[in-house]
Design a protein that fits this description.
Layout lengths: L5 E5 L5 H8 L4 E4 L4 E5 L2 H9 L4 H11 L6 H13 L3 E6 L2 E5 L3 H9 L7 E6 L2 E4 L4 H10 L4 E3 L27 H11 L8 E5 L6 H12 L3 E5 L2 H14 L7 E4 L9 E5 H4 L5 H6 L12 H4 L4 E5 L6 H9 L4 E6 L9 H8 L2 E4 L2 H6 L6 E8 L6 H6 L2 H9 L4 H11 L5 E4 L3 H11 L3 E2 L5 H13 L4 E4 L14 E4 L7 H9 L11 E8 L3 H15 L3 E7 L11
Helix pairs in contact: 2-4, 3-4, 6-13, 6-14, 7-8, 18-19
């Protein structure tokens, strides 16, 4: 334990696993390469711990138990102070009204005067209580968190319209199944002690670990009508398919709310994209005065939802944050492989969806055989001589595109596809012209945002069935794509240095294989260009997560050789 609030955990130590399990409850894992893992204590990690019942005494006891050296005094003070902050202000409900309550009247006086909070407060009803304006529950929690005062929400949740459903002991296709032990633990951790305050927060599981099944378990625990929000239409169809396969609900109970359909049912599955669709200028001019610019956000009020599930919660767009602040009386479950957000709004997830309730490191699940082991390869390829003058004089954004669309990558792609003949191959790229050329080079079907959903579903079904061995996809495959048979992914280009995108693309091949085999992830990068600089950021992210990363160099004239390591 270091005075800058970082912790260094030695993997080779015989107490590694026990110490790691303790740290997971109150520290943020920063990176986990081969020999030493780095964690960090942050206010958010300590508030998450407090929300899960791990207070300052338990945190300090764990640090004292495992630390090679005495815990620094400033760290002890930080742990004590931040843990003490959580729960000093509570949100309670009485006689249909909402109140902020605290045993510290001076703290409530400070809250009353906070500029970002005051507009949501109705009146002082005593030295230890403030009444909130109607529907201000989420907005106040969000504003107080930014001010360093995380609120303990004890106001409870509405029951929601009841819905009778159970998990099947066998899928609708006759395959026996049950929730895995860690999935059951995730549902229980999310539900907590139950009652009016049970059921709000985030479950973090690696890609391929079955987050959808955790969601189904939560739905059965609640037994109420549910709204499920997803990253894309493919994910919507996967949720609908899994719900039909693994629960006692029928087709009449499940509705799709996307650009193609607007069916509102007891279980409704929608996309973030449709919810954040803005009225066009002509629609806005024709709308009634005061009409919401996001007309589909009314879906949150269309039924008496007992549960809202946010799949890929790290992608939650700002308008959905806004409406989530208005529906704090509904139970909420966030599902994600990473709480990392490129916009830095992790605190909003904590305030509006709920604290992290459960997490399992990918290494644990890999060791148990629940996700596939993977090796990452980066092949560096020379930019053809005829493109170098254009690259030299281009603006930065155009430089990146020239490097990313390096036509020499297609030769490497053919070579890798030949090496992995017989494997199940996904080819992923950022630029449409590039993925079109890749599909033509391999004679494989292409899926982009313009591909009709019915055609996408057919191609994915053929891939799952084994009648199709290779698919070329654009960025539509970055998220929530359920292709457990895929064991090789080749990345032609990415979104600059996005860590989030890299983790999601790797996740496409991490689902356990029927033969127990591993997976291979290839990134094709143009050498000595700005793309290599961005690739270095993605490389660091993967190695920090503990993945083996091999760098090789290839020349177009010698692609049949292994290349220099």
């Amino acid at each position: 334990m270091q005075s800058d609030h970082t912790l260094l955990l030695e993997v080779a130590n015989p107490h590694f696993e026990a110490a790691r399990d303790d740290l997971l409850g109150f520290a943020e894992l920063v990176r986990s390469p081969e020999h030493v893992h780095t964690y960090r204590l942050t206010p958010l990690s300590l508030w998450n711990a407090s929300a899960a019942g791990v207070g300052a005494e338990a945190v300090l006891a764990a640090l004292d138990r495992w630390s090679k050296f005495p815990t620094p005094d400033n760290v002890r003070a930080t742990v004590t102070d931040q843990a003490r902050r959580f729960g000093r202000i509570q949100l309670v409900a009485e006689d249909g009204a909402l109140y902020l309550a605290s045993e510290d009247p001076l703290l409530l006086e400070e809250v009353w005067r906070l500029r970002g909070v005051r507009p949501h407060l109705a009146q002082r009803t005593g030295p230890r209580r403030i009444r909130l304006e109607p529907f201000a529950r989420g907005h106040v929690k969000q504003a107080l968190l930014k001010a360093g005062h995380p609120v303990l929400d004890r106001a409870g949740y509405t029951r929601g319209a009841p819905l009778a459903l159970e998990l099947r002991e066998a899928t609708a296709e006759g395959e026996a199944w049950a929730l895995r032990a860690y999935q059951l633990d995730a549902v229980q951790a999310w539900w907590g002690a139950g009652g009016p305050a049970g059921g709000s927060g985030v479950v973090v599981l690696p890609c391929g670990a079955g987050k959808t099944l955790v969601g189904l378990g939560a739905m059965c625990r609640i037994g109420a009508q549910t709204l499920i929000l997803c990253a894309n239409t493919t994910s919507v169809h996967q949720w609908m398919r899994e719900t039909l396969l693994r629960t006692t609900l029928g087709p009449e109970d499940i509705g799709e709310y996307t650009g193609a359909a607007k069916d509102i049912s007891p279980v409704t599955v929608a996309t973030y994209q449709i919810l954040t669709h803005r009225r066009r200028r002509r629609e806005a001019d024709a709308a009634e005065p005061g009409a919401d610019e996001y007309p589909h956000l009314r879906l949150f009020q269309e039924r008496d939802w007992g549960l809202v599930i946010y799949d890929e919660v790290h992608l939650l767009p700002a308008p959905v944050f806004r409406i989530t602040a208005d529906i704090q009386a509904r139970r909420r479950l966030g599902l994600t492989a990473t709480l990392l957000r490129e916009d830095g709004r992790e605190e909003d997830v904590f305030a509006l969806i709920g604290p992290k309730k459960f997490e399992v490191p990918w290494r644990v699940l890999e060791g148990q055989g629940w996700i596939a082991s993977a090796v990452c390869h980066e092949w560096r390829i020379t930019l053809p001589a005829e493109l170098r003058p254009a690259y030299a004089v281009a603006e930065p954004a155009e430089r990146f595109r020239l490097a990313a669309e390096n036509p020499a990558k297609l030769e490497m792609l053919r070579e890798l596809a030949a090496r992995h003949a017989g494997d199940r191959l996904l080819v992923i790229g950022h630029y449409l012209n590039q993925v079109r050329a890749a599909a033509l080079a391999l004679g494989a079907p292409l899926i982009t945002g313009a591909t009709p959903q019915r055609e996408r579903d057919r191609l994915f079904a053929d891939f799952r069935a084994g009648t199709l061995g290779t698919i070329v996809v654009s960025r539509v495959a970055n998220f929530a794509l359920d292709l457990p048979e895929a064991n090789v992914a080749i990345e032609l280009s990415g979104l600059y240095g996005s860590r989030q995108e890299e983790a999601q693309r790797l996740g496409r091949i991490l689902r356990p294989k029927s033969d127990g085999g591993g997976a291979s992830f290839y990134a094709l990068v143009t050498r000595d260009t700005v793309e290599q600089d961005y690739a270095h950021k993605r490389q660091l992210f993967l190695t920090e997560q503990g993945y083996r990363y091999i760098i090789r160099h290839a020349e177009p004239a010698a692609l049949g050789q292994a290349g220099g390591a």
